[in-house]
Design goal:
The protein is mainly beta and about 280 residues long. The chain has one domain: Acetoacetate decarboxylase-like, CATH 2.40.400. The chain is built from three helices and twelve strands; from the N terminus they run αβββββαβββββββα. The protein has a seven-stranded mixed beta barrel with strand order 1-3-4-5-10-11-12. The two termini are about 35 Å apart. The relative contact order is 0.18. The mean pLDDT is about 95.
Length: about 280
């Protein structure tokens, strides 16, 4: 067995997360209309792009060829938000499982500030024109999505990703809002800021799909707090996603940090870190 060292070669350190990409993703992506009450989940200064019919975004995929880890499964839920003229997804939480999940979670949290956790089980299942994807953590099925592949929920639906159905890759620019911070003296949160995480996705495959979704409440992972009242679009995809840039766009004054962290808590930690009684035995 080859030995490693706590003191690594300069090339190893210099190569950290260079050209990071989540390649060969396969699974589902969908956009839905949620309830206007989700505005309370957005940390200021972010606002909903459409307060009357707010949009949410969900994906559940198998990331077969990440550049920084073995393969892993990942799913996320977020709200479509804006800051000034910038729009993007504000992810409330992402869940990961599989051999590369630990590195996928640590790298995403430490480098970008993404609200990632590890879960017990993510399933991405496809058989002919039926697909079934779900995420389970602590015995709770946070989200369960069934797809009929071949048509949308509404026959009027059309999405840009369909451009790849002609056989040519369709590249979409996008991104999300992330929060980065430090933990200073007395374990107090400090240096909190919003960053624009810009990325591109290259779609090589897209099939329209009609989705049916169920969610269960959880004290640690409250995905069900975002009801999906109507499916705008859903599809089965194969794609690559890569990071373009990470740019600070807003820095919180020190007086706002503690209040803002209340919005960020559940996406990153379980309630056990803030209570005395937290046993679980099986």
């Amino acid at each position: 067995m080859k030995n490693g060292s706590f003191f690594v070669d300069a090339q190893v350190s210099a190569s950290f997360m260079k050209d990071a990409a989540m390649n060969a993703q396969e699974g589902i992506a969908l956009v839905g209309i949620t309830d206007s009450s989700v505005a309370r989940l957005l940390p200021p200064p972010l606002t909903l792009t459409d307060p009357q019919a707010p949009l949410c975004y969900v994906y559940i995929v198998n990331i077969k060829e990440p550049t920084f880890a073995p393969w892993y499964m990942e799913g996320g839920i977020g709200l479509i938000a804006r800051y000034g003229d910038i729009s993007g997804v504000y992810f409330l939480n992402l869940q990961l499982s599989g051999p590369g999940a630990l590195m996928g979670a640590f790298s995403g949290r430490e480098t970008s500030g993404l609200p990632k956790k590890l879960c017990e089980r993510i399933v991405v299942d496809r058989l002919d024109d039926y697909a079934h994807c779900f995420i389970e953590r602590k015995g709770i099925r946070l989200i369960d999505v069934e797809l009929e592949v071949g048509h949308y929920n509404s026959p009027q639906t059309s999405v840009p990703q369909e451009a790849c159905m002609s056989g040519e890759r369709y590249v979409e620019s996008g991104g999300c809002f992330v929060h980065r911070y430090s933990i200073g003296t007395n374990l107090a949160f400090a240096e909190l800021a919003v960053y624009q995480y810009a990325s591109k996705t290259g779609f090589d495959h897209w099939e329209p799909a009609a989705a049916t979704i169920t969610m269960q409440p959880s004290i640690d992972d409250p995905w069900a707090e975002v009801p999906i009242n109507e499916i705008v679009s859903a599809g089965w995809m194969r794609s690559d996603n890569w990071v373009e840039s990470l740019t600070k766009i807003y820095e919180y004054p020190a007086s706002d940090i503690d209040e803002t962290m209340r919005y960020l808590f559940s996406g990153r930690w379980d309630r056990s870190v803030a209570c005395a009684e937290h046993q679980h035995f099986e």
